[in-house]
What does this fold into?
Amino acid sequence: MKRIGLFLLILLLLPFGCKTESAHSAAGFACDTVVTITAYAPQKTVDETLKLCADYEALLSKTIVGSDVWNLNRANGDPVEVNPETADLLRLAIEIGERSGGAFDVTIAPLSGMWDFSANEPVVPDQAALQEAAKRVDYRNIVVEGNTVTLKNGAEIDLGGIAKGYIADRVADYLREQGVTSACINMGGNVVTIGTKPDGSPWSIGVRDPNGTPEQSEEVLKLSDATVVTSGNYERFFEIDGVRYHHILDPKTGMPVANGLASVTIVGTSSALCDALSTACFVLGEEGSKKLLAGYGIHAIFLYTDGTRSAIPSE
Ligand code: ADP
Ligand code: MG
It folds into this structure.
């Protein structure tokens, strides 16, 4: 009788003992960047996340025909009905626009559209043309009412500074809904971790050394249930006469931000928020970022082109 009881107990516990799936990975390309997802989940579940990335890209990309952003940028100021998620993301983008004093501005499209960082023979846009385009950059020209969005005064949207973080959050949500308790999502520098590794140890997330090779880490963060987002001057850039022109732009001038920073890394829980903050803090610089970061209670690491490092709050 005792043995039967023990047998039943083992049978009962078996599913828990076998709970840990082995790790499966999927890699793809979305939002102009490499996406890698590793999860302790069936391969099928991991593969589904790539499809999810593509679906969100089809909603938020400014270059995919028929996306919400595509439709908005071609509406000539008429109201456009968008997906509720696009409306939510725009509300967050506007909030960070406000709180950063316009350093983060998703109406950057007229300016970002003038730069081609992957051209064979890249050129610096004409200053007068940049000045003219900068007049149309102002997040206050985005009016969101429910799911209806209107762009005023010739505004155009580019979600490049926030979309990858948002999508990484949605991938994490999807995995959690599937019961996944251990995963690491990397969307081109936007990392989201779910739980710890199955052995209980935290995930190791390298912060790239901006003055080293892509594989070299300046430091390794040990994290669980957190997101790490880096904006760097090495992601998209070209050089002319020793000057580096990169893709994080000052919304006032349309020029790449040149304040000595090489990268800003933000650690938090919402990857969309951290993505936007990494761009905002890059534009604001360390001193200018203090209030914004304190408002969100969020941690940031500033790495400079001269090899120095500092953090807010200071360590
Ligand atoms: P990455 O794309 O390497 O993760 P960021 O998150 O900093 O880097 O995003 C940079 C992208 O954000 C640019 O390619 C452009 O699309 C957009 N962008 C550039 N400057 C700004 C800005 N000041 N505010 C909002 N978005 C910006
Ligand atoms: Mg960003």
Summary: Residues 161, 231, 275-276, 278-279 surround magnesium ion (ligand 2) (CB under 6 Å).
